[in-house]
């Protein structure tokens, strides 16, 4: 079951129901997809709380239903379409209810959405959330409302998010938006627009406020954090002079600024890009105990020809040299990845290169997907989606099984050691147990004792399951 979840949904596609907060009008807000969507939903909640909305967990009571959508694979979109049927039922008993589609799917389908899915009243792309109060007013007046304009500047830097996480311990903080990479399989550059970095001062301020509100971990989010560069004055990266570039804040410097807020504030980030990840970032990570020793470094394929077709900007050898750097600078670092099976033209031998690369790296964790052709992407225009579904599936099974084996080995290697764990809350299975993560992002479960969410505890790992360590506190 767990395994299927990874195959079908991975990091993206999970629905998160946001808990209740503030005001008198009721907003039911669901987020599908990546952490960035979750973080965007917190911006949406902040904009709407000024309009008197509070979030509810009961769809039937809502004045407004918003779904923040993901377009990364076809099944992510199908899931949202199914969900729209549930909203349709809720609206039958409450005809004044307004239904809005937000995010990547809204951006991809634009006004077509209003024609195709007749029950939708509002369609809003990821850069247009400031316009929500207007759009809601239009929809309440009986008009259909759309804003899917992408921006080159919008970072929502000045908006303090309404935190919607469940544990009050880990907060997501967006540091940039959009993506300029144009990986040939990926729809994100079309749905989220051009890359732009957010002012570091506003990022540090948001992280500090989270710490002061009791949060003990921030995850800095961007599609490609290694490409973060803020130069002030709204200057685009491409036109910077050498001098301006040297004076700008890069990701390594930003990471350090956030780490310096407080030693008890853990810092994580996602996602790295192998073509841009610098040793400077790795050295900053090594220098600060509170920067977690964990890197998500998507490889996508272990074959250089497939990587070229994917337009990833690196070869197998380059990727492995980045892994060597991580292991050299931080031998204890946890590493995870994303893998796509059955990309256009992928042969058995090319697939085996991915298997061999996995054997070499031995990832702690991986998110694995079958290739899903997306409209408008470079791959859709240039290549044939010619690997049969059964082969995509059998290759996926092969990588999933191998990863399962590696994850178990990595878990076993951590048994018998003491781990510094940030407590996130009760474990899924029992209220008498707590769960938290070590710096490598491995989940540990242990008896509750006197401890609570937000505490740091030292846990001796005594045994392990496929994905979790079990232990006892040795403070
Ligand atoms: N098909 C399958 N997987 C995809 N991803 C992105 N686009 C596609 C696609 N068209 C995967 C990549 C990426 C992760 C977020 O989703 O592995 O790293
Ligand atoms: Fe998509 Fe590539 Fe950008 Fe990631 S780096 S969002 S895979 S285009």
The CATH H-level homologous superfamily of the largest domain: tm_1862 like domain
Please identify, by name, the CATH architecture of the largest domain. Answer: Alpha-Beta Horseshoe
- Tell me, briefly, the overall form: globular
The main β sheet shows up as:
7 strands, mixed
Q: Compute the number of helices.
A: 16
Reading off the top of the CATH hierarchy, the class of the largest domain is best stated as Alpha Beta
> How far from one another are the termini?
35 Å
- The percent range for helix content is 25-40%
Structure, described:
There is one protein chain. The protein has 16 helices and 22 strands. β16, α14 and β17 form a beta-alpha-beta unit. The protein is of the alpha/beta class. The strands form six sheets. Strands 1, 2, 3, 4, 5, 6 and 7 form a seven-stranded mixed beta sheet that branches. The protein has a five-stranded mixed barrel with strand order 18-19-20-22-21. The protein has three domains: 123 residues, Rossmann fold; 240 residues, tm_1862 like domain (pyruvate-formate lyase- activating enzyme, Alpha-Beta Horseshoe), CATH 3.80.30.20; 57 residues, Nucleic acid-binding proteins (OB fold (Dihydrolipoamide Acetyltransferase, E2P)), CATH 2.40.50.140. Bound molecules: 5'-deoxyadenosine (5AD) and iron/sulfur cluster.
Offer a concise description of the structure:
The chain has 475 residues and is of the alpha/beta class.
Key words describing this protein structure:
475 residues, OB fold (Dihydrolipoamide Acetyltransferase, E2P), 3 domains, seven-stranded mixed β-sheet, five-stranded mixed barrel, 35% helix, disordered N terminus, binds 5'-deoxyadenosine, binds iron/sulfur cluster
């Amino acid at each position: 079951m767990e395994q299927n979840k990874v195959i079908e949904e991975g990091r993206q596609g999970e629905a998160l129901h946001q808990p209740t907060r503030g005001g008198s009008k009721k907003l039911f807000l669901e987020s599908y997809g990546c952490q960035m969507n979750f973080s965007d939903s917190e911006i949406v909640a902040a904009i709407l709380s000024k309009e008197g909305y509070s979030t509810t967990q009961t769809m039937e009571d809502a004045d407004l239903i918003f779904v923040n959508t993901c377009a990364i694979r076809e099944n992510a979109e199908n899931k949202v379409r199914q969900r729209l049927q549930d909203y349709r039922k809720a609206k039958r008993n409450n005809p004044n209810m307004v239904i809005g589609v937000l995010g990547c799917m809204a951006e991809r389908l634009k006004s077509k959405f209003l024609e195709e899915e007749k029950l939708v009243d509002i369609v809003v792309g990821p850069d247009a959330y400031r316009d929500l109060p207007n759009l809601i007013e239009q929809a309440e007046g009986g008009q259909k409302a759309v804003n899917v304009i992408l921006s080159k500047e919008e970072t929502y830097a000045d908006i303090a998010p309404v935190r919607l996480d469940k544990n009050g311990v880990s907060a997501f903080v967006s540091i940039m938006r959009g993506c300029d990479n144009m990986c040939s399989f990926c729809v994100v550059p079309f749905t989220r627009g051009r890359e732009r970095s957010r002012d570091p001062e506003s990022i540090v301020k948001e992280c500090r406020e989270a710490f002061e509100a009791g949060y003990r971990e921030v995850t800095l989010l961007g599609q490609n954090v290694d490409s973060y560069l803020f130069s002030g004055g709204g200057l685009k990266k491409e036109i910077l002079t050498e001098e301006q570039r040297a004076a700008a804040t890069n990701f390594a410097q930003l990471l350090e600024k956030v780490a310096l807020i407080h030693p008890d504030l853990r810092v994580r980030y996602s996602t790295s890009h192998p073509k841009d990840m610098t040793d400077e970032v790795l050295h900053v990570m090594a220098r600060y105990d509170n920067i977690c020793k964990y890197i998500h470094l998507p490889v996508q394929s272990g074959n250089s020809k497939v990587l070229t077709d994917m337009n990833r900007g690196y070869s197998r050898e380059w990727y492995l040299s980045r892994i060597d750097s991580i292991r050299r600078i931080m031998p204890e670092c946890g590493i995870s990845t994303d893998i796509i099976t059955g990309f256009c033209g992928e042969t058995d031998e090319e697939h085996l290169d991915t298997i061999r690369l996995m054997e070499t790296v031995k990832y702690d964790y991986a998110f694995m997907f079958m290739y899903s052709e997306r409209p408008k992407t470079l791959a859709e225009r240039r290549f044939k989606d010619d690997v049969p579904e059964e082969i995509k599936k059998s290759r996926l099974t092969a990588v999933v099984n191998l990863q399962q084996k590696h994850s178990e080995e990595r878990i076993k290697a951590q048994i018998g050691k003491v781990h510094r764990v940030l407590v996130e809350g009760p474990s899924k299975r029992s209220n008498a147990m707590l769960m938290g993560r070590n710096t490598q992002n491995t989940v540990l479960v242990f008896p509750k004792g006197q401890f609570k969410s937000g505490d740091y505890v030292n846990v001796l790992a005594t045994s392990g399951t496929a994905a979790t360590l079990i232990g006892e506190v040795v403070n």
